[in-house]
Amino acid sequence: MKTRYLAGWAVVLPLLMPIRCAACSCAWTGPLLKVAPASELVIRARVLGYHGRSRGVDLAMDVEVQEVLKGNTRASRLRIWGDNGAQCRPYVSGFPVRTEWIFAIGKLTGEKGREGDYFIGGCGEYWARVENDHVVGRLSSPVPPSMADKPEQMSMKELREQLRLTRK
Fold first, then answer.
1. CA of 117: how far to CAs of 23, 47, 62, 73, 96, in Å?
2. In what helix (H) or strand (E) does residue 11 lie, and over which residues does it extend?
3. pLDDT of 84-124, one tens digit each?
4. Residue 139 domain-assigned?
5. How large is the average pLDDT for residues 14-34?
6. 27-36 pLDDT per residue, tens
7. Which residue from 61, 50, 75, 56 is spatially nearest to 127, judged by alpha carbons?
8. Which helix H or strand E contains 154, and what residues bound it?
9. Cβ partners under 8 Å of residue 44, min gap 6
10. Do 18 and 53 touch, CB atoms closer than 8 A?
11. 131 three-state secondary structure
12. In a domain? residue 135
């Protein structure tokens, strides 16, 4: 009887323990100046608002294109899709409305979104904040980010030059 009782607990206890799982996992691909040259489109944009919601998460953001730094788009406004909780992308709520950013983005394919929508990758630094004509974020440091890191900063002029040099 005692053996049966212990065997029952051996089955039940693991089921009661919390299971640690990650929604996604990916290798860090690098800082903005490394990932931007391989991105389809790099823009300076102002966040206008959010679009779509699932389980309390904003899924996409609408942005106004201020400047195209790499690639081509004639659109003055774009929709950029972020994470839904399982795609290894940043949550768009991390980009507050009325703030300016550099985004290195790719065209969204498949059944989600509209023709001309984009997505922002999350396995590298595909964004940096624009403040007073300076770019602030993980721009060139080759090591993966940590909470103790101080953001790098450079002028927009220098960023444009760096991106121009990487295209040659």
1. 23, 15, 10, 11, 19
2. helix 2-16
3. 777 788 989 999 999 999 999 999 887 666 778 999 998 89
4. yes
5. 66
6. 889 999 999 9
7. 61
8. strand 152-155
9. 65, 66, 67, 69, 100, 101, 102, 130, 156
10. no
11. strand
12. yes
For the chain, the domain total comes to 1
Unique residue bearing structure tokens 């290798």: 27
DSSP code per residue over 89-118: ---GGGS-TT-EEEEEEEE--SSSS-TT-E
Do residues 70 and 39 touch, judged by C-beta distance below 8 A? yes
Q: Distance between CA 143 and CA 128 in Å, rounded? A: 16
| Cα distance between residue 76 and residue 67, in whole Å | 9
- CATH code (residue 159): 2.40.50.120
Name the residue range of residue 129's domain. 24-166
Angle at CA 143, nearest 5°, toward 91 and 138? 50
For 128, other C-beta atoms within 10 Å of its C-beta total 26
